[in-house]
Amino acid sequence: MLEVRGIDKTFEAQPLLQNISFLVETGETICLLGPSGSGKSTLLRMIAGLESADAGQILLDQIDLASTPPHLRDFGLVFQDYALFPHLDVFDNVAFGLKMKNWKSDEVKTRLAEVLELVNLRGFDHRKVTDLSGGEQQRVALARALAPRPRLLMFDEPLGALDRALREDLLNELRGILHRTQIPAIYVTHDQDEAFTIADRVLLLHDGKIVQEGTPANVWSKPNSVWAAQFLGLGNIIGGKIINGKKVETSVGNFSMPCKHKHQAGEKIYLLARPLEGENEANQIRGRVVDVLFQQDRFKVTLDNSLYFYLKIGPKIGQMLEIKVKLECLK
């Protein structure tokens, strides 16, 4: 088990990471999800031993790693730019770490056959890495990280250079590999689709802090702040104020809404509005359609009140719509 405990880091006299703490259990994949500059990659480099923290500890099986150099941590890293040796073939790229650890030749061959099979590169042993596609090169990088049987795998935006279809295929394969090998992993990305596909648990980073964590389903369905809902693109954020009890006044109408927070009359709040199907009693938002954009299997419909909704059926521009919505109060 890896434990990150109270990590702080400043950069140019500004706080970059503040009191970062989390666990990674055996066989668990966690994802550090956040915008560029939120400190994700810096945190990964600290865990790898490539940078030091100003405060806090990183422990593996309750042993502090502060005095353990990077090459003795037995962690595998996979980067966006592959970091392969262009003058070596696939076999020698993947075998590099094993040879550095003085594995015997027959052990290297046996292990190489196992990991190349695992990443669907059987028979690629003597191919030049410069002749491979981007997806194949990333598989080589993954095989190289897996070969020494690392105690932890770390991925820093590993699929950022690949096209969408290839990224989705590799992501699903990677998830399967991690579950089969039961190697704990930390995956860094700014892409929520990647995060929700690969992770058992998602940690949202914002301004150097973990602002929310949970399963992908929980983070998606229950954002705990305006920032989280906006970053994840979950729906419309509508400002309003409490009229009385559970009544909320907004620029697009007055709504009734159950809320677990305690509010005073006149208090300003923010609501997350998402389409709701199959409910007889629900809040409705009314507006005229000003734009319809087809996106894969749904339509992004924008109304004249600047709100947008994703619908299964695309209406006509100029049509009046009444959309049932689920309203959630955000902090």
SSE map:
Elements: E1 2-11, E2 14-24, E3 29-33, H1 40-48, E4 55-60, E5 63-64, E6 75-79, H2 90-100, H3 105-118, H4 134-146, E7 152-156, H5 164-181, E8 185-189, H6 192-198, E9 201-206, E10 209-214, H7 216-221, H8 226-232, E11 236-244, E12 247-250, E13 253-256, E14 268-275, E15 283-295, E16 298-303, E17 308-311, E18 320-330
Helix pairs in contact: 2-3, 2-4, 3-4
Describe what you observe in this structure.
- This protein has 331 residues and is of the alpha+beta class.
- The chain folds into two domains: 2-223, 3-Layer(aba) Sandwich (Rossmann fold), CATH 3.40.50; 235-330, no CATH class.
- It is 26% helix and 36% strand.
- The protein has eight helices and 18 strands.
- It has helices at 40-48, 90-100, 105-118, 134-146, 164-181, 192-198, 216-221, 226-232; strands at residues 2-11, 14-24, 29-33, 55-60, 63-64, 75-79, 152-156, 185-189, 201-206, 209-214, 236-244, 247-250, 253-256, 268-275, 283-295, 298-303, 308-311, 320-330.
- An eight-stranded antiparallel beta sheet has the order 13-12-11-14-18-15-16-17. A six-stranded mixed beta sheet has the order 6-7-8-3-9-10, sandwiched between helices. The protein has a four-stranded antiparallel beta sheet with strand order 2-1-4-5, with helices on one face.
- The model has no long low-confidence stretch (mean pLDDT 90).
